[in-house]
Amino acid sequence: MSDPSAYAFPTSGSSRLSTASSIYTDNRHTPQTRNKSLLERNLNRTKGAEVGLSSFAFLFSEMIQYAQKRVNGIQDLERKLNEFGYRVGLRMLELLVWRDRNPKREVRVLSILYFIHTALWKGLFGKQADSLEKSTENEDEFMISDNEPVLTKYISVPRELSQLNCNAFLAGVVEAILDSAQFSARVTAHTVPIDGFPLRTTILIKFEKDVLARDELLK
Amino acid sequence: MIYSVYIINKAGGLVYQRDFAEQLEKVSSNDYLVLAGTFHGVHAITSKISPVPSSSGIEVLEGETFKLVCTQTLTGTKFLIVTDPQHQNVDALQKKVYDLYSNYVMKNPFHTPEMPIRSDQFDVGLSKLINEA
Could you describe the subunit structure of this protein (chain B) (predicted)? Predict the structure, then answer.
């Protein structure tokens, strides 16, 4: 993974290219049907394009196991998951804006946060986040909470890793969206259980100083 | 009334055991392992000596005071449920336990296949299931 150019420009002959494309266009079994591959599908059609939660859960599980073998300690693991999510977030922002009926650039802190709370959550999980709050202690901190996080629905973190919250992946997604919308921030995920929702997760967003200073000017 | 649930891996090792009835006598954890291993052996023997070709092995064991129902999954994991002799509809319960297992154990990145099950969500789900049954 360290050298992405190796993937973009395969050095061996065209035979490799043809096998690579056959992964996406599954026409080996059904040559007649005009089933479009994942990459050719219309970006605006979301109905019926959902991915099964089980498929995702197994993939995510493997991603965590992969990451776990390559890190030292919980913080490093969360950083790695955050990186994975970052790559998703970069694409999600573009896709969501593209799908929006009245696409526009969000320039205010609150509106981009609302976009994440509503549009991002709906795009990823089919539901809104449960709350969007401003920290009472720190001016530059905001929190988005989900009572039943979809990503970690099946994950039980063992006691020795109790500090870990696998929604670090989701924090990475949020961080990428904020970064690419020019709202630099540090985003982390924390487990904050409340009655009836033991898995409740809060995504903590800490903006850079200049972001808030700019927002002050726009008032 | 459901007495207890056992999950045995394909090598005959006990990976999960829980009692739900208070009147059950507690035995040492080693004895539970022996019990699981013994059952695994008996199961293998029954499937071999059965007059029916390619038998799935022992499915129900009925005693005066208990009934033991065993299902083996395609991967060789065995689910045992011990109930009172009158208990009906253990099959539906088995299916639900298997459901919980495939969701909260197999999709959990911190679970190692064939190793003891330590999943809080599986524990919680199972308690809920047994209380409803």
Answer: Part of the multisubunit transport protein particle (TRAPP) complex.
